[in-house]
């Protein structure tokens, strides 16, 4: 649209979750870099290793620019407040995935404790992130891999209370589950399982986890029986995210929605602060790459409209609205 655009990134490479959160076997980093290079050739300025709100004040950027667009992602991980959480060997999923991705890309990463080789790994949480941890642990040479999922095992086909066009809540096998099944002979998922306590090996390192089996009714979760404990050397927490980290919102005095995301009223992209916009996971919650693409395009259109009073950038679905003028 002709505006001067500067991107501030707190990590050492551009790409965010696409660069360091999604493993290479799922998304080639050559694809990510190709897009970054195209943007750079178009004139976008990238500044890495700049943590806005800490290395540089968000208020300074606000004062120096005509518009600010927040695309910070939902990077505040959900924790597991149970006995033993302070033990060594327990990591957030993104810390584990980012460390491995950086090492693959040539960074000088010397963190053997973040490597799953010859370890008995337990991953708490399902979803895409949990599956990526499964597949990464397998490639690193884990001795065993088990995943705890709080929800019951989904049915093989749609239930009567899940009709089309609702999203089908059915049993699915993703790439990580299939790979583990081929190597170890069984699906790594253990459904209807809550984590009760993390066990100390006597030296401050995790050596096991005590789970509880559960089942659900339409109104509540009910504990059935305790399993005792299951041995492990590494625990990865992949239980989702609680929205964006709060320091930029605090500095710019932004209103958050009930899910702790940046509030953008009426489904638009403008926040509660003048000339500040938000897009992506930090606005709508953690989601898919296709949503990131759509959100970025539509937020850019709204910023352009704010700056120029109108915009010729494509609307939803890539449609450019042509206004006919007569006389």
UniProtKB/TrEMBL annotation:
It comes from the Eukaryota. Gene3D superfamilies: FAD/NAD(P)-binding domain (3.50.50.60), NAD(P)-binding Rossmann-like Domain (3.40.50.720). GO terms for molecular function: oxidoreductase activity. This is FAD/NAD(P)-binding domain-containing protein. Residues 47-296 form the FAD/NAD(P)-binding domain.
